[in-house]
Amino acid sequence: MSNPANLKYTASHEWIRSEADGTISIGITQHAQELLGDMVFVENPAVGRKLKAKEECAVVESVKAAADVYAPVAGEVTAVNSELDSAPEKINADPYAAWMFKMKPASAADVAALMDAAAYQAVVDSEAH
Amino acid sequence: MTLKQTPLNAAHRAMGAKMVDFGGWDMPVNYGSQIDEHHQVRNDCGMFDVCHMRVVDAKGEGIRAFLRYLLANNAGKLTLPGKALYSAMLRPDGGVIDDLIIYFMSEQWFRIVVNAGTADKDIAWMKQQAAEFTRHLPSGDAAVALSPASGGKLDRGNTPITITSRDDLAMVAVQGPNARAKVWQVLPQTRAATEGLQNFQAADCGEYFVARTGYTGEDGFEVMLPKEKVEEFWYALNKAGVKPIGLGARDTLRLEAGMNLYGQDMDESVGPLESGLAWTVDLKSERDFIGKAALLASPTVRKLVGLVLLDRGVLRGHQKVHTAHGEGEITSGSFSPTLEKSIALARVPKDVQIGDTVQVAIRDKMLAAKVVKYPFARKGKAV
C-alpha cells in the first residue's frame, strides 16, 4: 500500500489530512501499523485539549508494543474517532481511513510545511537500512 | 553481530515471516497477523520453529541420582519410560538458572530440553556439577541413599555422567487440537509408538523423537529430528494444512496458559517459590538438591499471581502494581486474544489475595486490575 499523495506526513509516522472545514484529521501510517502489528488499544486525547507541535497526545498499542502518537502541529483537539475504542484493528485494515483524532490547527502554514508523500517515503526507506 | 539462524530460516522468509532479533536469533515474530495465528493454534493447529532451543542428552549409570541432586523437581518421580518432568535448575542461593523439561528414557539416558538463551550456561553448569558428583562419593548422601533404583545403596554408577549438547538435532512444535493427527499424517511411521502417549510423555522413534509436550496450553507434539530433515518436515506439515506460527503468538499462548518465560517471569535473582513454581519444588522429602538449603532458609515474601485488567489498556512487563500490601511488578503482560482483555503475570507481596483489586501504573494513569488464578485459557477456552 503506497502513501496517498493527498496527505501530509511526519517523521514520527502520523498522516494528516486537511478537511473542508479547516480541521485536520490525524492517523498513523501504513508503515507504522505494519511495524506494530495487530492493534488492540487506542487512547485518544480529550476533545478541547490544546496541543503543542510534537507533543505526545495519543497512544496506540498492538499485541506487541505501545507507541506514542504526536501532534503534528500546534492546535486544539476537536474530535476523536471513538469507533477505534472497540475496533482498534481498523487501523491495521485501512490505516488511511482509520483517523484517530481531529485538530483545529493554530496555523494553516504549519500544516502546509509538513512532509509530502515522497519525502515521507524517503524517511521510511532510510529506516529500513 | 550476525544473528544466528535455524535451519528453517529460508522457509520462514519464503512463507512471508516478519523476522526479528530474538536473543541473538533471527526468528519469525509473525507471518501476518499474530492474533490470527493465536486463534489458529487454539482452534485447529499450528507449527513453531523451536530449533533455537537446545536438546541435551544426559547419560551414565548414575544419571537419575545426579538429576535428583541437580534439579529442584524430583527426577525420582519418573517411573514410566518416556515420561517428562518440568523443573527449575537452581543456583546454590536458590536463584533460577533455567527452567527445563527432562524426559526419562532409561536408567542410563535422560533427555533434557533447555532454553535457547541459557543453553551454553546450562550445559557448562551441568558438566561442572556432573564432574563434582562423580568425584565425591560421600556415604549417607540423601540424594543417593533415597534413589529408588539404588535400593538404598550408592548408585552413582561406575561410568562417568556425560552431558552432550545435541547440536545435530532440530525441533518443531506442532500444537493445537488437531496437531497430533497432522503429525501422524506426515510421519505415519511414528503413529504406533506415539498414539498411546500420555500428556507429558515422549517416544524415541529412531530418527524422530516425539514428545506430547508444548508451550501453548494445547494438545500437540514437540518433534526432535535431524537438522537436515527439518525443512522437509516443515513443508510437509504445511502441505498437510498446518500453518506456521511466530514467536508473537507463542508468547500470548504461553501467557494465557500461565507458563513462565525464563528471563521475564524468573531469573537468577529470584527463587522458584516466588515465581509460581512451588508445585515443581519438593521441599518435604529428604532428597537434597542444589538450592534446597537456601530455599528453606529464606522466607518467601512475594508470589506470582495472574492479573486481568478491568480498565481499558494493555498490561506490560515492568509496570508497577500497587496493592494494599505493598508494591509489586508485572513480569509478563499482553493482550489475551482468547479473553479479549489484557492479562499479566505479576510478582506481588504474598498477602495479596485472589479476587483483590490492585492498581497498575500505565504511563500517567493508575488502572484497576483484578488478581486471578492462572492459567487464563487452555484447550481452546478461557478458564
Kindly summarize this structure in a few lines.
Chain A has 129 residues and is of the alpha+beta class. Helices cover 24% and strands 33% of the residues of chain A. In chain B, strands 10-11-12-9-3-13 form a 6-stranded mixed β-sheet.
Task: Annotate the secondary structure layout.
The complex is a heterodimer of chains A (129) and B (383).
Chain A: E1 8-9, E2 14-18, E3 24-28, H1 30-36, E4 39-43, E5 50-51, E6 56-62, E7 66-70, E8 75-80, H2 83-86, H3 90-93, E9 101-105, H4 108-112, H5 117-127
Antiparallel strand pairs in A: 1-2, 2-3, 3-9, 4-6, 5-8, 6-7, 8-9
Chain B: H1 9-14, E1 18-22, E2 25-30, H2 34-43, E3 46-49, E4 54-59, H3 63-70, E5 84-90, E6 96-106, E7 109-114, H4 119-135, H5 142-145, E8 162-165, E9 169-175, H6 179-186, H7 191-194, E10 202-205, E11 208-211, E12 220-226, H8 227-239, E13 243-244, H9 247-256, H10 292-297, E14 302-309, E15 320-323, E16 326-336, E17 341-349, E18 357-362, E19 365-372, E20 377-378, E21 381-382
Parallel strand pairs in B: 3-13
Antiparallel strand pairs in B: 1-2, 3-9, 4-7, 4-8, 5-6, 6-7, 9-12, 10-11, 11-12, 14-17, 14-19, 15-16, 15-18, 16-17, 18-19, 20-21
Helix pairs in contact in B: 2-9
